[in-house]
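A favour, since you know our structure tokens better than I do. It will help me judge whether the discrete encoding reads sensibly. The space below this message is yours for that.
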Amino acid sequence: ATATIHNHSVCFRLYPLFPFTFVSMVNWYYAMVQSINTKALLTLASVARRPYIASPHVHVPTISDVNYQSMRDHCGIRAVIFDKDNTITAPYETSVHERASLGLQNALDVFGHENV
């Protein structure tokens, strides 16, 4: 807040902590409360208790070297998530890298578009 003097009175200018009005802050708070993803929070707590489950157990040169069929059939994996930069594209690019295109297509064939 800053204070300036105009005609012998003090005028305060308040700077909010967030770039919204108070009413929109209240709406933002209720929107956040209504959209809490408890499943995600439980999963995060599980990973925090057992951090080894979030670390890689297999290292491969490219995603094209992964056998997705075996992952699904023998390991029970139902979906995969890829990080875009340095996994399926070069950094800041939008097209799939040539070395990753086969692996991405294999993952899509095995798991389907809704699980990749």
User: Anything to note?
Assistant: The longest strand covers residues 2-6. Residues 1-23 have pLDDT under 50 and may be disordered. The chain is about 40% helix and 10% strand.
